[in-house]
């Protein structure tokens, strides 16, 4: 008896085994029975077992709903006007995208969300930094605004796990690691992982795109698929940042093209408000571009207070203007 | 395997025909019959998934609430199914449908709305797929569940193009073959969404030189199908979704004059089903989205 298993001989890798499996399942069972003189019944049984092992299990909508109701959490971004725009925050099980030109506050929103989740909600956060833009000082600064106790600050910082990856293959490695047990491991140190922040997704994917390469697209969709699986299976909120381009008519658009545009469930476009102060405009406008819950194209304004003025910025250096519809 | 004519009839007749699933969408007498495939195609944010929810709700809602009371399989290869949204739509529809109906169902302990919602949701089967081979095997597996549950009459796939970039070379053909088999054997109706992810560059180049022609057909740029040929042969109805008019300025104009602040979506249907005898029938319709789901105008 020979067991067909990947790695048995050099040519027989996982893909070949999967192809053989697909062919076996797709072939006509009656014909196959005649060809290899195996009884039809036995072949049917094999087919049934193979299918049972490799297919996705159908779930009743009722069970799915009940599970969802008991496990869905909404994470606040700690910026009230953004929360209002997002229908009270980041939903677990979904990918939310922030896109905007450089300096529109994408990373700042990520920092604010990370510190808020780690400190107020006492949950772990995984922060994947692909640009080297994560500044621990800034995180600490935001925490100092929220609490004076050094112990609490240390605890909150410990709940934020940072991964630094600078190319797409290490990103995929990192995501697969998280998927296969890394998330549970990270959650051992108090509080389960509720948020995965990827800042920024475009920095890592855009170098692989362009020209006539399909590999880049394939890699991008793999990243997207893994992020979605992580979001759903572990019930975490995924927050990614993306750059911004201009469409043919000059209107702002999220980067990474059409294929990526289908990936995030919710997308916010961040822009600098016009007519801001002469030095650095700290006012930002967020526009809801894509959402399945709220009408699109509503706007909200928020304000970054870059200087450390804790007496004003109760919310971690982010001062809030009231949201206004257009 | 052989079966008698009576058995064949018993197997096929139990399934409900979904021709009248949505009169607004399809041309006259061209609703999707047994075993036909409808493709929903469009850019992001053009209401494809919302339309699917609408059709899904219409199917799972009980007859007294304006639905059809049939069972549905939702193959979610994109992780795009938002149960909360679906439940919101169902609740709204149920409230609208049942408020005029019977006064009190009187089920023990559970309020009637909740019970109705639960019975609706139990008519839905959700399958999550993570790769194209899993999708293929799952479709094979559906064989058995379809033959054991005669109430199942609609298969929704969101989205069929999810793995396009992952296995471009020749991928998808076997999926199309299996789907073909499913539709023939069990006379199930399939709705599948495909994302517009390839721009037709030839068209863009020509339209930039003559901008007037491009504005007349806002669809043309993304219209070209890119999935494999067997799939294209399989599709009998194509619904092209688009948002508002072409540009942002037009969208704001429609917002201002008609239904204040509501984004409208357009759908154009091209049917080439057997009933229309070779000729293609077209129909355009538009809808807007509210808390209670899709409303046609």
From TrEMBL, chain A:
GO terms for molecular function: ATP binding; ATP-dependent DNA damage sensor activity; four-way junction DNA binding; single-stranded DNA binding. Residues 307-326 are annotated as: Disordered. It is found in: Nucleus. This is DNA repair protein RAD51 homolog 4. Residues 71-244 form the RecA family profile domain. It holds the Pfam family Rad51. SUPFAM superfamilies: P-loop containing nucleoside triphosphate hydrolases. Its main location: nucleus. Part of the BCDX2 complex consisting of RAD51B, RAD51C, RAD51D and XRCC2; the complex has a ring-like structure arranged into a flat disc around a central channel. In the absence of DNA, the BCDX2 subcomplex XRCC2:RAD51D formed a multimeric ring structure; in the presence of single-stranded DNA it formed a filamentous structure with the ssDNA. Interacts with SWSAP1 and ZSWIM7; involved in homologous recombination repair. Interacts with BLM; required for stimulation of BLM activity by the BCDX2 subcomplex XRCC2:RAD51D. Involved in the homologous recombination repair (HRR) pathway of double-stranded DNA breaks arising during DNA replication or induced by DNA-damaging agents. Bind to single-stranded DNA (ssDNA) and has DNA-dependent ATPase activity. Part of the RAD51 paralog protein complex BCDX2 which acts in the BRCA1-BRCA2-dependent HR pathway. Upon DNA damage, BCDX2 acts downstream of BRCA2 recruitment and upstream of RAD51 recruitment. BCDX2 binds predominantly to the intersection of the four duplex arms of the Holliday junction and to junction of replication forks. Keywords: ATP-binding, DNA damage, DNA recombination, DNA repair, DNA-binding, Nucleotide-binding, Nucleus. CDD domains: Rad51D. InterPro entries: HRR_RAD51_Paralog, P-loop_NTPase, Rad51_C, Rad51D_C, RAD51D_N, RecA_ATP-bd. Belongs to the RecA family. RAD51 subfamily. One of its GO terms (cellular component) is replication fork. GO terms for biological process: DNA strand invasion; double-strand break repair via homologous recombination; reciprocal meiotic recombination; telomere maintenance. Transmembrane segments: none annotated.
Automatic annotation (TrEMBL), chain B:
Residues 14-297 form the RecA family profile domain. This is RecA family profile 1 domain-containing protein. Signal peptide: none annotated. Coiled coil: none annotated. GO terms for molecular function: ATP binding; ATP-dependent DNA damage sensor activity; four-way junction DNA binding. It comes from the Eukaryota. One of its GO terms (biological process) is DNA strand invasion. It comes from Muraenolepis orangiensis.
């Amino acid at each position: 008896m020979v067991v067909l298993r990947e790695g048995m001989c050099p040519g027989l890798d996982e893909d070949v085994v999967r192809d053989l499996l697909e062919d076996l399942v797709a072939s006509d069972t009656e014909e196959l029975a005649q060809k290899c003189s195996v009884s039809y019944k036995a072949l049917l049984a094999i087919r049934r077992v193979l299918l049972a092992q490799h297919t996705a299990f159908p779930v009743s909508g009722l069970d799915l709903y009940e599970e969802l109701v008991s496990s869905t959490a909404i994470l606040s971004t700690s910026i009230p006007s953004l929360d209002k725009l997002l229908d009270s925050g980041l939903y677990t099980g979904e990918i939310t995208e922030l896109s905007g030109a450089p300096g529109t506050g994408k990373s700042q929103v990520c920092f604010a969300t990370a510190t808020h989740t780690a400190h107020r909600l006492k949950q772990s956060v995984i922060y994947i930094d692909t640009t080297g833009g994560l500044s621990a000082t800034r995180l600490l600064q935001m925490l100092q605004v929220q609490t004076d106790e050094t112990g609490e600050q240390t605890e909150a910082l410990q709940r934020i796990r940072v991964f630094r990856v600078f190319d797409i293959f290490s990103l995929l490695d990192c995501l697969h690691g998280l998927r296969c047990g890394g998330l549970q491991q990270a959650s051992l140190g108090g509080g389960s992982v509720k948020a995965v922040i990827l800042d920024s997704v475009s920095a890592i994917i855009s170098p692989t795109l362009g020209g006539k390469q399909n590999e880049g697209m394939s890699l991008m969709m793999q990243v997207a698929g893994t992020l979605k699986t992580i979001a759903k299976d572990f019930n975490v909120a995924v927050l990614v940042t993306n750059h911004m381009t201009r469409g043919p008519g000059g209107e702002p658009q999220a980067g990474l093209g059409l294929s990526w545009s289908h990936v995030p469930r919710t997308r916010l476009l961040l822009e600098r408000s016009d007519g801001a102060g002469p030095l650095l405009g700290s006012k930002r406008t967020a526009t809801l571009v894509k959402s399945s819950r709220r009408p699109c194209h509503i706007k909200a304004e928020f304000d970054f207070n870059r200087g450390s003025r804790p007496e004003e910025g109760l919310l971690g250096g982010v001062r809030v203007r009231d949201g206004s519809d257009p | 395997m052989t079966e008698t004519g009576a058995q064949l009839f018993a197997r096929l007749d139990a399934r409900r025909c979904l021709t009248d699933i949505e009169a607004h969408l399809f041309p006259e007498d061209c609703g999707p019959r047994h075993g036909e495939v409808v493709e929903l195609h469009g850019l992001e944010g053009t209401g494809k998934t919302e339309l699917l929810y609408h059709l899904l709700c219409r199917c799972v809602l009980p007859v007294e609430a304006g639905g059809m009371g049939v069972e549905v399989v939702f193959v979610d290869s994109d992780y795009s199914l938002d149960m909360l949204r679906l439940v919101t739509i169902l609740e709204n529809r149920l409230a609208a449908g049942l408020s005029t109906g019977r006064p009190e169902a009187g089920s023990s302990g559970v309020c009637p709305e909740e019970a109705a919602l639960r019975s609706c949701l139990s008519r839905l089967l959700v399958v999550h797929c993570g790769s194209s081979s899993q999708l293929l095997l799952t479709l094979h597996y559906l064989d058995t569940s379809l033959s054991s549950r005669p109430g199942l009459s609609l298969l929704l796939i969101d989205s069929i193009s999810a793995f396009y970039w992952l296995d471009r070379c020749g991928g998808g053909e076997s999926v199309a073959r299996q789907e073909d088999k499913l539709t023939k054997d069990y006379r199930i109706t399939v709705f599948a969404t495909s994302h517009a992810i390839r721009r037709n560059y030839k068209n863009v180049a020509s339209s930039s030189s003559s901008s007037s022609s491009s504005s007349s057909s806002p669809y043309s740029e993304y219209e070209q199908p890119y999935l494999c040929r067997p799939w294209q042969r399989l599709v009998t109805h194509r619904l092209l979704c688009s948002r508002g008019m072409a540009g942002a300025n037009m969208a704001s104009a429609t917002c201002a004059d008609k239904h204040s602040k509501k984004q409208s979506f357009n759908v154009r249907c091209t049917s080439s089903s057997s009933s229309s005898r070779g000729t293609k029938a077209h129909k355009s319709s538009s809808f807007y989205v509210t808390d209670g789901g899709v409303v046609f105008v």
